Amino acid sequence: MQSVIDQGDDPREIKAEKLATTKRAKQEAEIKQTTLRDIWPRYIAEASRHGRRKNSKPWGAHHIAAHERAVKDGGALSALLDVAIADLTEQRLKQWLEIETASRATVAALAYRMLRTCLNWIAEQPEYSDIVNTKAISATKVVQVLPKPTEKNNQLRERQIKPWFDAVLKLPNQIIAVYLQVVLLSGRRREEILDLKWTDLDFKWATMTVNDKVQGRVTLPLAPYSLELLNKLPRNNEWVFSSPSSANGRLQEPRKSLDRVIAEIGVPHTIHDLRRTYATLSEEVCPAGVAAQLQGHVPKDVRGKHYVNRSLDTLAKWAAEVENTILSFAERR
Fold first, then answer.
1. Residue 135 CB burial class (10 angstroms; 0-12, 13-18, ≥19)
2. How far is CA 30 from the centre of its chain?
3. Helices 161-169 & 174-186 angle (0-180, nearest 10)
4. In degrees, to the nearest 5, what angle opens at C-alpha 272 toward C-alphas 270 and 155?
5. C-alpha separations of 19 from 32, 33, 127 in Å
6. Mean of the pLDDT values across residues 308-312?
7. In what order do the strands lie in the sheet with 216-221?
8. Torsion-angle region of residue 206: left (phi > 0), alpha (psi -120 to 50) or beta?
9. Residue 162: band (very low, low, confident or very high) from pLDDT cuts 50, 70, 90
């Protein structure tokens, strides 16, 4: 120690530096062993509060639930949970994707997109940026394993609408039954309808205000039958589609009820396919621009973007026409 002092060094500083070096080395070793299981909860929590990127919208309940399902036992990402992020190499990812794609191609493709986005987020975190290789998941030999995308055109045919309504009306949960009908009769996105609060509905003037994912808050007409359905729902809390078993009191996942409908009528479809059904049937009733505005599609032509501003009264007329057309197929009118 005397020799250290003789050299003009402070032993306490040297000891502190050694301790700091040892601590850094330990931290770096721990970071290198960080797994997807360690990161995933933080990633979801961050996205649920602030969105995936700066100025992006926070994730909705449906999106969060999908990410949670992916990492549960048996989920498409569960096999990678205990692999160190640093070990997610091209070969490791290729092997994982080959196994998943062989048994559930569509689910595997979704899990791949989830993982890719998560890895990009990890790379943006200063403490983890050195351990993640974002190029691995986009490597050609990994991407080539992905199932080829197919055109999405599932929808209910005209003669399938009556049995669909009959099955929906038999559901024991009438709140979900109304939800499914309103999605079909409005053509709106599943989360836009799920997120409705009683303050978003105006029963006097027959309107609803939705959180359109592109345009923000948008007020739309409510056609008579939909208005009647909504007005009969119980006012259990602030949510139109309430659920006593949900943490926030709002209906979260109507999938099981839809599965019962599918089992009864024998026509596989998703909630988004109800939106496609509306789009197809509305084409036979009203101008394309009107149907697009009712559904929240962004106008693609200059005239639609800058010159056409249809009044609520005009939209209400066409919304009622589309609703009547769908109800006529259901023999509800």
1. exposed
2. 33
3. 150
4. 70
5. 20, 21, 20
6. 76
7. 201-202, 207-212, 216-221
8. left
9. very high
Number of residues in the chain: 333
Taking alpha carbons only, the member of 85, 83, 91, 82 closest to residue 131 is 85
Amino acid (1-letter code) at residue 189: R
Three-state SS annotation for the chain: CHHHHHCCCCHHHHHHHHHHHHHHHHHHHHHHCCEHHHHHHHHHHHHHHHCCCCCCCCCCHHHHHHHHHHHCCCCCCHHHCCCEHHHCCHHHHHHHHHHHHHHCHHHHHHHHHHHHHHHHHHHCCCCCCCCCCHHHHCCHHHHCCCCCCCCCCCCCCHHHHHHHHHHHHCCCCHHHHHHHHHHHHHCCCHHHHHCCEHHHEECCCCEEEEEECCCEEEEEECCHHHHHHHHCCCCCCCECCECCCCCCCECCCCHHHHHHHHHHHCCCCCHHHHHHHHHHHHHCCCCHHHHHHHHCCCCCCHHHHHCCCCCHHHHHHHHHHHHHHHHHHHCCC
Per-residue pLDDT of 216-270, as tens digits, reads 889 999 999 999 999 999 999 999 999 998 889 999 889 889 999 999 998 888 9
Tell me how far apart the alpha carbons of residues 85 and 70 are, in angstroms, rounded to a whole number.
Answer: 17
Half-sphere exposure of 5 (CA within 13 A, CB side): 3
Residue 107 CB-density burial (10 A; 0-12 exposed, 13-18 middle, 19+ buried):
middle
Q: Structure tokens of 238?
A: 């602030």
Q: pTM here?
A: 0.60
Q: How is residue 310 written in tokens?
A: 């249809």
- The span from the CA of 293 to the CA of 89, in Å, is 45
Residue 32: the pLDDT is 79
71 and 40 Cβ atoms separated by less than 8 Å = yes
| Cβ proximity of 169 and 177 under 8 Å | yes
